[in-house]
Amino acid sequence: MNDFLRLLFGRRARLRWIHLILGGALAMPYVFVGQLVVGPAMDSRYVFNDLPLQLLSFAVGLPLAAVTAAVFPLTRPLESGAVRSLCGIGADRLAHGPARTWAAKGRAAAWFTLHLGFGGIISGMSLAVPPFAGFLTALPLLVWLGGDTLVELPGPLDHTWVLALAPVAGVATMLALAGCAAVSGTLLARWAPVLLGPAPEDRLAAAEARAADLAVRNRLARELHDSVGHALSAVTLQASAARRVLDTDPEFVREALAAIEDTTRRTVGELDAVLGVLRDGDAPGTAPAPTLAGDLAGLLRRTRACGLRVTSTVGVDPEALPPVLSREAYRIVQEGLSNALRHAGDATSVTLSIGIADGHLEITVENPLERAPSCRPGGGHGLRGIADRARLLGGTAEAGPERGAWRLHVRLPMKGPA
């Protein structure tokens, strides 16, 4: 019994009933337009007081509703939002964008017509049945209190047994109304994913949007890893070196502190630029992205301040490089030097070579192999990020031990996919 009452009057049933009432409210303008057509056609001035003419006006208005849904693409997202909130349909089973193709518009029009059709009928019943059911339920009491002065019954109802059954009939009428509303709501909920669900083109667009979002996330992850990771490694080593010679070499400590200040200030600017992408979609941040042309000298200076001897050979004019290539090359050099800082052990030298060969920009970073790069928990993404950057530019990246040294070698085409 409880399950039966929950089916008719539970929270889901009540929300679906509200959804049907909403459909009836949306149907009213179309009914009024139907009256303007039916009245002159049937030569009647009182369409509103004639139930058959009202039903005919309702039938005339429904095709107009279908046309409206087909003409206005936003009908589908609006109806999807109402179905998700009131009918208990999961968001993943509904399309949330405007209908673009004629097939999608046709399904949206069919749904809108069904919503208004069922909603108009249930709304009309909801207006008429409760007063009638209340009258039947109170009929014996009215007759007992006032007799014929309050209620004048037709002959067939002027019987004691009929009066006794009137409250039962009133309750049964309300249950019938609730049953009709529950069945209508269930049918609409079952048809909603079919008529308002995503079409193949919608699924394709959603997949493309997810792929684009994933690409942005990966790019942001690489930028954060390269800029912040390098800065933390450099600042840690600079602070450690300064602490060791604090009492014996004040000049070195002063240089290390200046390098820490420069590194952190620059990294905050890069971090703000990356977070600006998160705040503003894909808009540029407040700080420009570092490039090989404008920032290589500062990167080498900050790295040397960590106590690492860097021997650099630059056989190309960085100003002549394309902006995208210059930016990605800077990040690759930065990550290569960061790996040397983190994993060089007691070795204190690294060799950097940048040049052009066979139409490719070649970047080589070598340091003595005191220990192999470790795969720390949650880390080890630097070499993978370098490989991703090289692959996106149509190049290659190789890293590993070679003749007693750890060698990173990257080849980037001077002209290729940007």
TrEMBL record:
<dbReference type="GO" id="GO:0046983">
    <property type="term" value="F:protein dimerization activity"/>
</dbReference>
<keyword id="KW-0808">Transferase</keyword>
<dbReference type="InterPro" id="IPR011712">
    <property type="entry name" value="Sig_transdc_His_kin_sub3_dim/P"/>
</dbReference>
<dbReference type="Pfam" id="PF07730">
    <property type="entry name" value="HisKA_3"/>
</dbReference>
<keyword id="KW-0597">Phosphoprotein</keyword>
<keyword id="KW-0812">Transmembrane</keyword>
<dbReference type="GO" id="GO:0005524">
    <property type="term" value="F:ATP binding"/>
</dbReference>
<feature type="domain" description="Signal transduction histidine kinase subgroup 3 dimerisation and phosphoacceptor">
    <location>
        <begin position="217"/>
        <end position="281"/>
    </location>
</feature>
<keyword id="KW-0902">Two-component regulatory system</keyword>
<keyword id="KW-0067">ATP-binding</keyword>
<feature type="transmembrane region" description="Helical">
    <location>
        <begin position="53"/>
        <end position="74"/>
    </location>
</feature>
<keyword id="KW-0418">Kinase</keyword>
<dbReference type="GO" id="GO:0000155">
    <property type="term" value="F:phosphorelay sensor kinase activity"/>
</dbReference>
<feature type="transmembrane region" description="Helical">
    <location>
        <begin position="161"/>
        <end position="183"/>
    </location>
</feature>
<feature type="transmembrane region" description="Helical">
    <location>
        <begin position="20"/>
        <end position="41"/>
    </location>
</feature>
<protein>
    <recommendedName>
        <fullName>histidine kinase</fullName>
        <ecNumber>2.7.13.3</ecNumber>
    </recommendedName>
</protein>
<keyword id="KW-0547">Nucleotide-binding</keyword>
<dbReference type="GO" id="GO:0016020">
    <property type="term" value="C:membrane"/>
</dbReference>
<dbReference type="InterPro" id="IPR050482">
    <property type="entry name" value="Sensor_HK_TwoCompSys"/>
</dbReference>
<dbReference type="InterPro" id="IPR036890">
    <property type="entry name" value="HATPase_C_sf"/>
</dbReference>
<keyword id="KW-0472">Membrane</keyword>
<feature type="transmembrane region" description="Helical">
    <location>
        <begin position="108"/>
        <end position="141"/>
    </location>
</feature>
<keyword id="KW-1133">Transmembrane helix</keyword>
